[in-house]
Specification:
Beta-Lactamase
């Protein structure tokens, strides 16, 4: 399965629906390819400008580091690291970035969400990642 622009747009809509239904608040959401390059982005009404870049960096970070930003955050705390040690100013350890993997576990893209509490952002990315790995529907 490939991550197409059509599928990425559907995932954006599903993420926005979940944010509205579960949390009653708007989000910014980015879907990127396996390298972290943005495929598509959307920002719900009422989102601050800062959430745009944050969602994009969360998606980028997940792809570049090969793990969710939640996992990266835990590693940085556990190993007493600074994010700057990775020599990439586009990285962030804020939870809310995740990998999109196909059924065989191959990374096909990434997702980043900003606008809610970090754990809530992360839960939306987990939901979207689950759709991609389980449904495999274009």
């Amino acid at each position: 399965m490939q991550l197409t622009l059509n599928l990425a747009r559907k995932l954006i809509e599903l993420g926005k629906e979940k944010a509205t239904k579960d949390f009653g608040r708007p989000i910014s959401i980015t879907i990127g390819d396996e390298t972290g390059s943005m495929l598509t982005f959307d920002r719900m009404d009422g989102m601050p400008q800062r959430s745009i870049r944050i969602s994009q960096q969360k998606a980028y970070t997940a792809a570049r580091m090969g793990v969710s930003t939640d996992s990266l955050f835990e590693r940085i705390q556990r190993e007493h690291l600074e994010i700057s040690y990775f020599c990439d100013p586009g990285l962030t350890a804020l939870p809310g970035g995740n990998l999109l993997k196909n059924r065989s576990g191959e990374i096909i893209g990434c997702v980043g969400v900003s606008g809610l509490a970090p754990s809530e952002d992360h839960s939306i990315t987990e939901y979207i990642a689950g759709i991609v790995s389980e449904e495999q529907a274009d």
